[in-house]
Amino acid sequence: MELGNQALVLPALKRFARATHEGHAAESIWCELERTLTDVFGQRLFTVLAYDEASNRLGRLHSNRPDINPVGGMKRVTHSRWTEQVLRRGEIFLGSTREAIKAVFSEYEVLWSIGCESVLNIPVRKGSITLGTLNLLGEAGLYDGADVDLALVFAQLAVTTLEASVRKLQQFGEPDRMEQV
User: Fold this and answer.
1) Which end of the chain is more exposed for a tag (fewer CB within 10 A), N or C?
2) E strands within 43-117?
3) 141-159 pLDDT, tens per residue?
4) Domains of the chain and any CATH numbers
5) Closest Cα to residue 151, out of 22, 37, 58, 14?
């Protein structure tokens, strides 16, 4: 991994694993994950989305910028290259440029305005089922050379917490308004 300080990786993993092991509340775990991923990968915007395949919805569970991406926001999933890659096949999506952001996010101008010109979307999976995504956005090229295998380690540590959140998402009815993804 070329990003960040290698000396931070193991302590960051240990911190996040301890938070999940001790059964902290979901929001506390997401905050710890945010801190951990910032130490290892860096980002300006970090969100966690739960995915309910049955209803074809994504629900925002955590955001470090609620002024831009509020918690509780819902997105209707539409057919796209990103959907196939990340949600269906469970593969990481890495975009390095403004053009990549524009191709994937309808709110690309807002993202550009806060300096987000690259993205690392990490699917969180249990077996072959995608439970959600961890989404890191930062300056152009930030994730070029990122250790995607390490990103998947963090995603796997988030499985239990995200799985519980997906169950909650499934209990909600259809919201009045949804974004498109």
Assistant:
1) N
2) 45-52, 57-63, 74-76, 93-95
3) 999 999 999 999 999 999 9
4) 42-173 (3.30.450.40)
5) 37
